[in-house]
Amino acid sequence: MTVLDRFLRYVTFDTQSSEETGTTPSTPGQRVFAEALVKELEEIGMEDITLDERCYLMATLPANMDGQAPVIGLIAHLDTSPDMSGKDVRPRIVTYTGGDIVLNERENIALSPSMFPELADYEGQDIIVTDGTTLLGADDKGGVASIIAAMRYLKDHPEVRHGKVRIAFTPDEEIGKGADYFDVEKFGCDWGYTIDGGQIGELEYENFNAATARITFKGLNVHPGYAKGKMRNASLRAMEFASWLPVNERPEYTEGYGGFFHLTGMKGSVEEATLSYIIRDHDRVLFEEKKAILRTLVEKMNEAYPGCVRIELRDQYYNMREVVEPQKHVVDLAFEAMRAAGVAPIVRPIRGGTDGARLSFMGLPCPNIFAGGLNFHGRYEFLPVRSLEKCMETILNIIELAPSKQTIDNSFKS
């Protein structure tokens, strides 16, 4: 079974996660998928296969060489995004020759380079698309397929000498909970890689520092005909507060390393209103400054309208660069592995988060590597077949090159 065959099979599993259930895994389909993967890993001959009650699946490929080598970890997630249905995915392979790809003629849905100019980069290649009614699931079943296909290859090719490899598949990454119950000590690796990036060549070891803010406004409602001097409209206070934040620090005006305040939700009445924000910045100092701005504005509003507003701030994760950069050999190995696969590395910051960020701060340095897909989380998601194959090849190169680290860099021991 090729890596393509595996991917096409895996996307038939409905593993969409949910923020509403409060369970881990958040949906039963993730366990169904994990149990199917257990059987595949057993057939391959992997060892130490464990699937715990929270749906964290781990397994071992034993070393087949003498001498010391770092233990490498490879991680992907089981779930797909709750942003769009992942049920009854109908993947289709097309040879892209330019122009629009009609995904669904009946509903007039087309994947067009006018909307997604990156499509032109894959002219002449086979790409996997949806039928326009679901997402595809390359995020992250492309990563799952590449890891398992690499394990199969290494079991079938013992002449490739390698150290011990650990693999893990996690639930609920798409709702920010993939690392919640990840047992780093049990995983037992010197460092790892999440196989969860986008286009071919992506290599990421910087991500946003992230926090959430919930700002609640209290008002006073009386009959509007007799409200003069009495009514205090919480919704208007919320609107006023939102207007105080800098317009140019919204997501739609930022790129690269630029951080932002993102209003993700609002609801309100005269009596009470709430604003929900996410705060993001790659720079830790600027991140802390953004949180301080919110606190200052809350104080300003309470000075104008005493007791009107309160804020709840919660940090979510931090920039993994703080942990990974001092162990740069982890990134250098991935860079070298991509180049050996004929892939040009694209090193850039993640304008988002990754389980690897949290795992890095939990003691497992963990950059992120491309899985090959584009336009994640929606009907226009697609995956070039060559990118999927190069993901698998990069994984194999990492595993084969890793033992050389003992002769050129002993920092994996620390």
Please give a handful of descriptors for the protein shown:
17 strands; 414 residues; four-stranded antiparallel beta sheet
Beta content: 15-25%
Give the quaternary arrangement of the chains: single chain
Average pLDDT for all residues: 94
Task: Tell me the structural class.
Answer: alpha+beta
Residues in helices, as a percent range: 25-40%
Distance between the termini: 38 Å
Shape: globular
- Indicate the low-confidence ranges by residue numbers: 407-414
Explain the overall architecture.
This protein has 414 residues and is an alpha+beta fold. The chain has eleven helices and 17 strands. The chain has helices at 3-10, 28-44, 138-156, 184-187, 234-244, 284-304, 321-324, 329-340, 355-361, 385-401, 405-408, and strands spanning 47-51, 57-61, 72-77, 92-95, 101-104, 109-111, 126-129, 165-170, 191-197, 202-204, 209-218, 260-268, 272-281, 309-317, 346-347, 368-370, 383-384. Strands 1-2-8-3-9-16-10-15 form an eight-stranded mixed sheet, covered by helices on one side. Strands 12-13-11-14 form a four-stranded antiparallel sheet, with helices on one face. α1 packs antiparallel against α3 and α8 packs across α10. The longest helix has 21 residues, at 284-304.
